[in-house]
Amino acid sequence: GDSVTQMEGPVTLSEEAFLTINCTYTATGYPSLFWYVQYPGEGLQLLLKATKADDKGSNKGFEATYRKETTSFHLEKGSVQVSDSAVYFCALVNAGNMLTFGGGTRLMVKP
Amino acid sequence: GAVVSQHPSRVICKSGTSVKIECRSLDFQATTMFWYRQFPKQSLMLMATSNEGSKATYEQGVEKDKFLINHASLTLSTLTVTSAHPEDSSFYICSAQRGDKAYEQYFGPGTRLTVT
After folding, report:
1. Phi, psi at residue B73, to the nearest 5°?
2. Are strands B10-13 and B4-7 parallel, antiparallel or unpaired?
3. CB spacing of B103 vs A93 below 8 angstroms
């Protein structure tokens, strides 16, 4: 079946550091890929998405590129802020129209 | 933006009792809602898909007699954990789907259930 694997956290960075959270997937066909963010005490929110190979999703300074050749969708941000501290989930949707989530990566940004 | 609420946010109950968790879409109607369970340091596991006016569809391995789901209106779904045991302690998250795409789900903040 489909699966998503992302790096274990927590990831601890200083403010203005560069962020990469790795995500790889296993799926048949051509899934759509997503990053969700969960701030403390809140529900998951869609951060960005990409629906086909080589698409780049971007939002709030975060970017991720759909790489079919490496089955990856790594999340990046050039300069993180304390307010970016949250748990980030990589996910995919395939033919069954159901979300499959990775394990989540906690990001902690220190001032 | 679309808002989904869950109530209660935390609940502690004794073994053998039942507890009900409510999921409401506050500013949109949702014919489909989902219930997830999240274990510590693990991903969200889909438990069931709740469709308004019909029976819920449970994922493999989820006991439907233990986790009762009712989707009585377009803005409310409830999950009742019956005869709770300590192993049912977990973080339960609901979502409501606004459109016809799976990613158009809006998530509630979750309910922490502790069974003593």
Report:
1. -145, 175
2. unpaired
3. yes
Share the mean pLDDT of chain B: 92
> Tell me, what DSSP letter sits at residue B3?
-
Per the listing, tokens 């748990």 go with A87
Q: Is the pLDDT of residue A84 over 80?
A: yes
B41 and A CB contact within 8 Å: yes
Beta-strand pair B44-51/B19-25: unpaired
A40 and B CB contact within 8 Å: no
Chain B residue at shortest CA distance from A43: B109
Residue of A nearest to B106 (CA): A45
pLDDT in tens, B14-32: 999 999 999 999 999 998 9
Question: Residue A71: what are its φ and ψ, rounded to 5°?
Answer: 45, 55
Question: Under DSSP, is residue B13 helix (H, G, I), strand (E, B) or coil?
Answer: strand
**Cα gap B6→B76, rounded to integer Å:** 10
Six-digit token string for A65: 């590129």
> What's the first-to-final CA gap in chain B, in angstroms?
37
Residue A84 burial class via C-beta count within 10 angstroms: exposed 0-12, middle 13-18, buried 19 and up: buried
- Which chain B residue's Cα is nearest to A6? B43
Interatomic CA distance for residues B77 and B79, integer angstroms: 7
The first and second tokens of residue B23, run together, are: 């999921």
For position A28, what pLDDT does the model report? 87
Tell me, yes or no, if B44 comes closer than 8 A to chain A by beta carbon: yes
